[in-house]
Structure formats: C-alpha cells, structure tokens
Write the structure tokens for this entry.
Amino acid sequence: MTTLDLHQARANQADPFFRRAFGAAAALGGLLLLVITGYLITNTLPLWAIQSPFSFISTTAWITGIEQADGSTLEVYGAASALFGTAASSMIAVLFAAPIGILGAIYLVEFAPKRLAIPLTFLVELIAAIPSVVFGLWALGDLSIRLRDSIEWWIASTLGQVIPWLSEDPGSPAADSVFRAGFLLAIMILPMIVAVSREFLRSVPISLREGYIGMGATKWEAIRNVVVPTARVGLIGAVLLALGRAIGETIAVTMVIGNAEGIPTSLFLPGNSVAAKIASNLGEAGTEIQLSALVALGLALFLLSFVISLVVRISLRRFSAIKAVS
Amino acid sequence: MSRTAVTVREALLEPGARDLRRARTDWVMRRVVEFAAFLAVLPLFALVLFVTLRALPWLSPEFFFNNPLDTQPGIFNAIIGSLQMSALALLITGPIGIAGGVYLSEFASPRVSSIGEMVIDILLGIPSIVAGLFAFLLLVPILGFSGWAGSLALSVLTLPIVMRTTQEVMRLVPPSIREASLALGIPVWRTTLLVTLRTALPGVLTGLVLAASRALGETAPLIMTAKGTNASNFLDFGTTMNAMPLVIFRYAEAADDRTIGQAWATALVLMAIALALNVIVRWRTIDSRVA
Amino acid sequence: MLSVSSKKANRKGAASESAGEVQPHTQEAEVAVSGAVSLTNVEAFYGAFRAVNNVSLQVQPRAVTALIGPSGCGKSTLLRTINRMHETLPGARVQGSITLDGIDLYDREVDAVRVRRVIGMVFQKPNPFPTMSIYENVAAGLRLLGRTPKSELDGVVEASLRRAALWDEVKEKLKQPGTSLSGGQQQRLCIARAVAVQPRVLLMDEPCSALDPVATLKIEDLIRELAAEYTIVIVTHNMQQASRVSDSTAFFSMDENRAGYLVETGPTTTIFTAPKESLTESYVAGRFG
C-alpha cells in the first residue's frame, strides 16, 4: 500500500465530525483570503466611478479635492509616484542584498567550519526577528549608518556626475530618500536571501562537487560552475521572495522614504511608497472616494505580493526544500 | 599528442600562469564570501549596540510603570496593550491555526493540501498595511477603534504562521508513529491529537511563539484599528489601545529629546522581547542543524 | 577468465623500471612510461580516528590493481588519499608518503588541484553534472585548463567518448543533458570526462556497484581496455570482478582498532589461487566479508 493510499484510508476512517471540524478550521484560511480580496475589490469601486484604473496607475498627482474656479472639485488620484517609490526602493534593496546574501550563503555552506557556520547562520536569521519599526527608528538616528552615507557619497560623486537620477546636492543631502529606504530594506531582506539560498545550496549533492574537484578544479570553480548553476532556480526564488517582502514592507520604509509628492528627480531625494502613502493618508481620508483611492493602493500592493507568491511557488515547485518564510 | 598532455613533473611541480591565476582567483573569492558573510551579520550587532546605547539613559521604573499622561511619562499602557492584543490574537488564531494545519497535513488530499499551501503562502505574503487596511474597512465600522479591532487585525497576520508551522512539523512526524498507534486500535482522531500532534508539539509551540513575536512587533495593522492612546486601559478592549510599536512610530520624529528618547527605550524593550523569544525558540536548532 | 596474458605482454617494458623516476629520451616517451604510484607507510585519519594503518604498496603503471576486502577496511579512504581527496573533508589528514613517478604528491610545493589533474577519479554513483550537456560534461575538465579552440575541443570530446566506449551511443545527442542517459551510460560518461584531461592514473571507487549486471560487464571490458594507457586502481567489493579485471590485487582487513591494514598483495592469480595469508584465503573462499 503506498503512502498515498494509507493517507487517504486514514482520512476516510477518521471520525467525520472530527474531520469536518478541523477541515473547517483549514477552510477558514481560504475564507479569510476570499473575504480580504473581496473587501478590497469592492471598496475600490467608488474610485472607478470617477477614474479609470489605467489613469490611476499612470498619473503621478494625488489631489484629494480642490475647489475649482467654476465650482467643481478637482480630484485626481494617481498611484504612479507611490508605485515608483516602491519599485525603486525594492530594486535598490535587491541590488544590494542579492549578491551579498548569496555570497554569504555560499560562505556558510561551502567554506565555514561547522562550529562557525551554525552560530553565524543563527545570527543572520535573528535579524529577521527584529520588528520593522525598530529598523525604521534606527535608520533615523544616523550614527551607525556611516557606511550608508559613504556609499551614498561615493555613488553621487562618481556615477552621479554622469547620471542625473543618481546625483545629489552635497551641500544638503536629503535626510529621507528613496535610496535610504532601499538601503534599509536591503538590510531587512538580507537574512531571508541568506536563509533560503543556504537551503538550496545545501541541497546540491556532495557527489557533484566531488566529481568536479576530482577533475582538478578549485573549490571556487566547483561552486561557480556546478553548485550555483544547479541551485540556480532556488536562488532566483530566494531573491523573488525577498523582493516580495521588500515591496510589502510598510513601516520602516514609511519612516525613511520621506513622504513626498511626485516622482523624485534623483534617488537621493525624498519619495513615496505605496505602503507609506496608505499609512500616512488613512487617518485623513474623509470622503468615500478618498478612502477608496487608498484601498486601490492597497489592492495594487496586494496583487503585487499575490503575483510574486505565485511566481515563486510555481518556479520552485520541483524543489522539495521550499520554505515559505515571511 | 595534444597540448594538454604534460609530463607528470611539469604538471605537479611547474604550474603554468593559468594555474597560478586560478589559485589566486580561488583565494580572492574565498575572501569575498567571507566578507559577505561578515556584512550579513554586521547589521545585527550595529543595531543592537546602537539601540541599546541610545535607549539606556531613558530606562527607569517610571518609564515602565507610568502612563503617557503622568507627570513622569511612561509607556505602561503600551506594554500592557501590546501584550493584551497579541495574547488575544494568539488565543483566536492558535486553535484555529493548529486545527487547520493538522487537517492539511493529515487529512487533506494532495490537491486540497496543495491549494491550502498556496492560500497560506499568499496570506503570509500580505503586506501588513493591507491587513490593517482590511481591518479598518471591515472591523472598525463594527467594533470601532478598539483593542478588538487591533487584535483581529493582528490575527490576519498570525493565522498563516501558526497554520504553516503546524502543517510542516506534523508532516515531519514519521509515518511509523501513526501506524503504530492505529495498529493498536486507537481511533484516528485520538491518534492524531494524542500521538502525532503530541510528537510535533515542540514545533507547534515554536510556531506559536514566532506568531507571538510577530504580533508584538507589528505596527501597521494597529495604526487604524487600535490607534494608540494615552489613557490606560487594562483589559478594556472596547476602546482605543496603545501598543509599543505605535509608541515608537509616533514618538520617532518628535521634537523634544525626552519623547525621542522614550522611542528608543521602547525600541530596546521591543527588540529585547523579540530577540529573546526567537533565541529561546531556535536554541535547540543550533545543535540539531549539525546534520 | 582473466585477460592477464595480454596485460603481461604490455607490462614487459614497464617491469624493467623501478618505482622511482625514469629517465626517458623524449617527452613522449616520458609520458608513455609514467604512472607508477608508490605508497609508503600511509596512514589516513578522520580527526583522531585512524582509518588506514601503515599501508605500503607499489602500483604498477599501465595495469589494473584491485583493492579488495570487507567493508569498512579503509579501501575507499586509501584510494582517496592518492588523489588528495581525503583531505577535503574537515579534520581529515594523511601521513606517510605517496609518490607518482617519484614525485611526492603531498609536497608543500604541490597543489592538490594539480594532483587531481594527473590522477582522475570515477565515483561509486555516477555523477554527471545536471546542468551540463553530454558534450559539456566531457569538456568540463578541459575548459578549466584554458581556452581551447572549438575544433580541438570537439576532437578531444569525441576521442574521450570513444575511449569510454560511449561515442556511438551518444554522438547524435551530444547536446542533451548528461543526466538523460542510463546508469551504465552515465558512468561511462564520467569515465570519458575523467580521461579527457589526460591523466596518468585513474582511481575507481566501486564504479559498478550502482549498476546492473549488463552495464557492469561493459564497464569491466572498458577497464581492461583503459589499462593499456592508464594506471588503474579499483576498489571493489566484488571478488569475481577483481579476479576478472585486475592484474594485481591488494587484500585489506580491519585490525582491532577498526583501522584498515594491508594483509597481502600480489598478482591476481596468486592471490586468488595460492594466497600466502590464511586470512586472504578465507576471504577469497567466501568464508567472511
């Protein structure tokens, strides 16, 4: 009898009341998801009465109601600047965190002596336990982020001379900016990339490494030409997972990105993010339409994370070592 | 013979330029990955050190036991509020999450179980602000700005954690344990609860602790539900309730030093709790990871 | 049935050399006669545990030497000291002297990476690289050694696959992944990629134990062919295989401290028909192990 049959047989033999009760609990999860989706969608409807979804996504201005000369009210809700901020800060985060995370995971799996690897892995993952509001506060107090400031200065004074959106006025660097949000996000998602990458690197059989080294390859060559390519799908999944987390991160980003209107001309200037915008404006949303505009932002965020979850799940389906860490 | 044929002496004792380059690359990359691992650990130390240093001057008995409106303001209502709302969220989602996780692991057909996992994945990925937004839309009209709404908002985030952890640890229990129990004539439901679940219990508790840690640290779900308050409300869920993350968020950009200082002190407390919970829960895994 | 007679004919020239360095006249001649491995007082440790105790053995070039004995006698461990794979495990170390053509493999000047270029290995379970095609698997070692023009690479790949008796079966599908072959084919692919870098010595760690009998026989035939060019040392649990395939046999057993030691070594026919030690005689008669 296969395990599958046994499983089914056991399920069938179970007391139906028991099975249904527990099944209901499981179903509650699905119900919750449906309710959330439904509520989000229905609460955006008032907005679609006055504006099209396309315009919502493409407009940068966010005007909650200005009396016009002719007595009408101007209301335009554009998510574009918030979406830009979310996208840009998340990309910056992944740009920094992916290489460091994967290389760090390589160290932990391939080179670190066991007595070092275990505590180190433990410490890296511990960062994930720290609440994001603490991260935000830390980023605001600027003493221990000298590193960030010097990186900022370095980029602005080299690439920034050539590329306008990387430029910065050295006289008055902005305290809050898209870049700073991205940098903070990088620190916050790094543990996730390390943890998931580590799992996939470990899943590569030792025999493959030995086969390559046995032909006269150095350890690094084995990692680069055999281990990493074999684990590649998983590593990409790790980065996508982290990207999803970066996109949804609310509080730390809100505290650091600056809550500015419009799309900033430089990454070193204040910007906005979808989550931050919702958090800041929710208290002042007076009319139904204002509220539904914010819900539309929330829906956009929800859909983004939904899609990323699905993509990760599908592409990692063949790997049994899936860890859906949040 | 092709140029790859060399004498043994040459191959072993006279390395070519390329061989030396390969060896050097290997050495360089080893240092690179060591540095990367160092960078990965660095933020933890920097954060803990910095928060501790900034927070220490502001720690005092008044800080812990007074309320924000007292002459010597403190964050007592926030501490209590956090604990209460998180406890309630766990009380609600704990049993449901465990039951659901058990079902998905033990009784669901592969298809249902796969769908269930996907649902949990999506729930896990919900940005915390969306959970807060949802609670604001659905619960606040009914429950008002209250501790109830706050707890339920937190529940949205803790439910998938408990369910996922329970499902995973139940799956890890070897089939032989269930079969041994069933072979003794013990009914399925008793086997599942008293045998399988009991075996998986440490893992399930870990899930609950991790969920608790998450609930204590979340800000966004509470901003528009419990909202935070300066009043003290012990066990009064019906009105607005304060929480530590809210204190940090609200005090962070204040003008006066004392308020900012209290933000740091609160951050230290919150961070200490979160780290302590996670360390306790993972302590065993430090050894078992040796495999 | 032993094909010892043809082996003996080949070895006539090799027999006159000592285990030390040979002074040939041309580079080609030097390449042609090399491949003599000499182990002297070799001990291998995993941390504090001694797995191999004081083994001294001469491995004749251009011949097959089999290492036999019950499991746990350190045969694989010993094999892996020859190409310095043993030391890749944390805490593992080797004592004693192992030389190839008189050159100390563990000399401080000698990089382990280069040792493995001249001493190749085939593992128990076939391990083709899953992300590479059949062609790329064979070419993998060569690519490490430098930029080879495609025409030359093609030539070496074909020659190696022919030498591994695999060319005809895969010549139409070189671009397919290495893992798309059957077990026996995969192992021959591993042999092809090992010979592609032109080693002197081939170490084989129970190469047929994961294969079916038909594939096993194919590989045994292959081993006998390969012995014309390479020094082969093969660890095997299968006594019949050892008697079929090898010219010399070394029999190992375990001492009271669970360390492996060399009981007896000699020409295969002698070991199997008239061994000196009674322990050897018991083993080959199937009375234990």
Remarks:
- The beta strands of chain C are 37-46, 49-59, 64-68, 92-100, 103-104, 119-122, 201-205, 231-235, 248-254, 260-267.
- The interface with chain A takes residues 83, 85, 88, 90, 113-117, 120-121, 123, 125, 127-131, 140-141, 144-145, 190, 193-194, 197 of chain C (CB under 8 Å).
- DSSP finds twelve helices and ten strands in chain C.
- The domain at 4-13+38-279 of chain C is CATH 3.40.50.300 (Rossmann fold).
